[in-house]
Amino acid sequence: MSHRDRFTTLAGLTRLNRLGGLVPARGTTAARTPFVLLVVVLLGAGMVTLLILNASLNQGSFQLSELRRETQELTDEQQRLQAEVDAYSAPGALAERAEELGLVPAGPPAFLGEDGGLLGDASPTPAPEPPAPPEDDSPGDEDAGDAEDGESGEGEPRELPTEVVPQGGAAEPRPEPAEEPTPAPGAEAPAPAPAPETLVETPAPEAAPVLPPAEGAQTP
Amino acid sequence: MSSPRPPRPRGGRAERDQAGALRLASHRPRLRLIGVGLTLVMLAFTVRLVQVQAVGAASYTEKAAVNRYVTVPLTAERGDITDRSGTALATTVDAYDITADPLLFSEEESGVPDAPQQAAELLAPILGREEAELAELLDDPENRYVVLARAQTPQTWRQIRDLRGTLAEQASKGTGEQVLSGVFATETAKRVYPNQDLAAAVLGFVNSEGEGAGGLEAQLEAELSGEDGTITYAQSGGRRVPTAGEREQPPVPGSDMELTLDRDIQWAAQDAISEQVEKSDADGGYVVVQDTTTGEILALANAPGYDPNDVASADPDALGNPALQDAFEPGSTSKLITMAAVLEEEAADTDTHVTVPNRLPRADRNFADHEEHETLYLTLAGVLAHSSNIGTILAAEQLGESQPEANEALHSYLDAFGFGRPTGLGFPGETAGILAPSGDWNASQQYTIPFGQGLSINAVQAASVYSTVANGGERIDPTLVRGWRGPDGQFEEATEPERTRVVSEETAAELGEMLETVVASEDGTGSAARIPGYRVAGKTGTSNRVDPETGAYSGYTSSFAGFAPADQPRVTVYCAVQNPTEGAYTGSEVCGPVFNEVMAFSLAALQVPPTGTEFGGLPVSFDPDE
C-alpha cells in the first residue's frame, strides 16, 4: 500500500512538473498559512462589520423613537400652551380682564384729518359710570378670575384657575391702573382723543406678557 | 480479499479480521441504485424548488405578506376655520380616548379582589368622572372594551401612564398592587373652538366621527376634511422592520378656511345681543354686520348661543343659525324698499306732501299707525321718519295706475333687493323667506306688504337691503368665506360675489338722506342710534310676530337696521329681537342700543374716521295752510 502511495505521488509530481514546473518541489504547507489567515480575517471583519451595522441600525432606531417621542411631547406641550393662550386672548376673556384692570369701553374714536383738523368727537370720553374702585381689591380679583376660567371651559379647564390666581407679580401693579382711570375722566383733562381707541386695543398685547410668569410658575 | 479498498477505515480491517469469510455482493448495482435514488430525490427537490420559486412564487409571497405587511390608515388633519385676520375659530388638536379591558380587572387576572374600585378611585380625579360610574364600567369581566373618557388631552393620558408606571414599580417591589394594567388609550383628533360660543352658530360643530354636522363645518366638509392616506410596512412581532420596504400614501390635510368674520366685531355683536335678549326676556335675537363695500359679513351673531366644544349638553333647539334659518316678518325696516320703489319710479320725491289721517280704510279693514294721532302733514321723508304705515300705503299706491300694477312694481323691487330667494351663502338649512308672487297677494296683503307685514325674510336678507342702499344702489351678494389656504400653503380667494344694480345712485343717496333723517330728526324714531361725531342712517322696526306654534300673530319682532357713516357708508348693522316680553318692545328701545353699541364698536375696530360733515335732516312735515 505504501509503495503504491508513493508511486502515485511521484507520478503526480512528475505530471505537474511536466506542466511547467510551477509548483514548488516540496508540499504547499508554507503558502497555506497566509491564505487561511486572510480568510479568517475576512470572515472576522465581515462579522464585525455586520455587528457594527446592526448595532448602529438599532442605535438609529432607538434614537428615532426617542426623537419621535420628544416631537410628540413638544407637540402636546405646544397645543396645551396654544389652548392657554387662546383662552386668554379670546375677546370675552380679554374684555373681562380689561374690566378687572379698571378699563372702560371706549367711546367713538376721533381722528386727525389729512389737513390736521380733528374728525369726530374730541371731547373726553363719556365714561360710562366708572367702576367703583373698592371693588378692585384682591378678593374681588380672585372672584373675577374664577368667573373667567369657568367660562373658558374647554381643553384643560382644571388648570386655568391655578394660573390666574397665583399671579403674585401681576397682583401688585394691578391696583395702580385701577385707581388711575378715576381721576382721568373726572378731571376734565384734555384726554387725548386717540386714547379711548387704544384703551380697547391694548389689552390684547398687555394680557399676553402676563402669561409667561404664570405658566412658568405652573410647570415646575 | 488480497486487495482491499485503500481508504478503508480501521474498523474495516478489524471486521475483516474477525469475519474473514464475509462475502459482499457486487457493489456496482448498489451504487447504481443509490445513484438513481439520489437523482430521484434531487429531481423531486428541483421540481419542488421550481414550483415554489417560479410557478407559485406570487401566491406564496402574498401569503407571507399577509402576516408580514400591515396597512395602517393615516388620518388627514382637518383644516382650521379662521376669522379674517387668521385667528383660529376652530382648530384640531391631538386627543386620546381612554379605554379599558374589564377582564384585566377581574380577580383572576389582576390578583386583587377589588381592582375595579381601586382603579376607579385612582382614575376618577384624573378623568373628572364619578368614581362609582367608573367602577361599574370596570366591574364587568364579560366585556372586553369600555370607553372611560373620550377626547382627553395628551397630558391626561400621560398622567395615567405615569401613575401606571409607578404602580408597576411598587408592585415589583411588593409594596403595592398594579390595578391599572387594563387601561389603554386610542389616539384621536379633537375639534376645539378656542373662543367657546363665539360665532358658534356660524361655525357649527362636528360629530363624534369628526365630520362636520352643522353650520360651516358641514357646508365646507369637502374642503376641510382633506383626504386620508395609508401606510404599509413590514412588521415582526408588532415592531416595524426598519430596512424592509414600506409604501406610504401620505394623507392630504384639509384646507384652512378663512371667513369674512372679524372676531372682535363678532364678539361685540354677540355680547350686545345676548345681553339684550336676556334683558328683554326674549325668545332670541340676531345681529348681522356687513361691510357695505364688499358684501362681506363681518359678524353674524345669535342669541341664545351654545358652546360647540360641548354640543352634547347644548339645547338641541339652539344648535341652528337662526339669523339665516328663522323666517320672520320684517316690519317697518322694509319700508325702505317701498320708498326706494317710489323714488326710483319717480312716483314721488323726498319732499312730496303726504297727508296722513289717523285711520285709512283699505280692503276689509282700517289701517292705523303705531300710535293714535291727529291728521299729520308729512313729507315723504317724514313718513319714513315717523314710520307711518298709512303714509307708506299711500306712497305705494302711487307706484302704478291700478293696484295690481302697483303691486307688481313693488314686488319687482322686493325681488331685486333679494327677498324670497336664498342669500347666496349656501348655508345649510338657510331659509329663502316667503314672498308670494304679486298676483297672489290677497286683499289685505297688498296694503300690508309695503310696510313689511305679510312677507317673511331672514336677518341677512334684511341687512342686505341696507347694504345695497349704502353701496349706492348696487346689491352685492353677501359672503362668509374669503378664501382658503390649501395644503400647498397657497391662499386662494373665493370667487367674487355677484353685483346687481337695484336702484340708481341718486335714489340711493336720497334714501340715505331719508334714513339719516330718521336718526337725526327731532321727530324721528331712530334717535337711539346716534353716535357722537358720526353721521348715522337707520330705521326702526316693530312688527307683529307670527308665533311659530300657533301660526297666529302674537308678540313682536323688534328690529333696527342702518349704516354709517351715512355719507360714505362702510358698515351695515342689522339687529332683530324676537318676542321681547320684559320691558319695552319697540325697535328703537330694544334694538336701538344694540345697534348703537355694535356700530360704534365696528367703526372703531375698522378705524373708520367720521366724514366731518354735518346734516340736520330733511324736512319731515309741511304746513297744510301754505
Q: How are the secondary structure elements laid out?
A:
The complex is a heterodimer of chains A (220) and B (626).
Chain A: H1 2-19, H2 29-89, H3 91-100, E1 111-112, E2 118-119, H4 138-151, H5 160-164, H6 168-171, H7 175-179, H8 183-186, H9 194-201, H10 203-218
Antiparallel strand pairs in A: 1-2
Helix pairs in contact in A: 3-4
Chain B: H1 10-18, H2 27-55, H3 57-68, E1 69-74, E2 81-82, E3 88-100, H4 107-110, H5 115-127, H6 131-138, E4 146-152, H7 154-173, E5 183-192, H8 200-203, E6 205-206, E7 212-214, H9 215-219, H10 221-225, E8 229-236, E9 239-240, E10 247-249, E11 256-259, H11 263-279, E12 284-291, E13 297-303, H12 322-325, H13 335-344, E14 353-356, E15 359-362, E16 365-368, E17 376-379, H14 380-386, H15 389-396, H16 403-416, H17 445-448, H18 459-470, E18 474-476, E19 481-485, E20 491-493, E21 499-501, H19 505-520, E22 537-546, E23 553-564, E24 571-578, H20 587-590, H21 592-605
Helix pairs in contact in B: 5-6, 11-21, 13-16, 13-19, 14-19
Quantity of strands of chain B, as a count:
24
Low-confidence stretches of chain A: 133-220
Shape assignment of chain A: rod-shaped
What percentage of amino acids of chain B are in beta strands?
15-25%
Q: What is the CATH class name of the largest domain in chain B? A: Alpha Beta
The largest interface is: A-B, 40 and 41 residues
Oligomer: heterodimer
**Any idea how many domains of chain B?**
2
Count of runs of 4 or more consecutive helical residues of chain A: 10
Which band does the percent of strand residues of chain A land in?
under 5%
Instruction: Evaluate the radius of gyration of chain A.
Output: 43 Å
GO molecular function, one term (chain B): penicillin binding
Protein name (chain B): Penicillin-binding protein 2
InterPro entries (chain B): Beta-lactam/transpept, Beta-lactam/transpept-like, PBP_dimer, PBP_dimer_sf, PCN-bd_Tpept
Pfam families (chain B): PBP_dimer, Transpeptidase
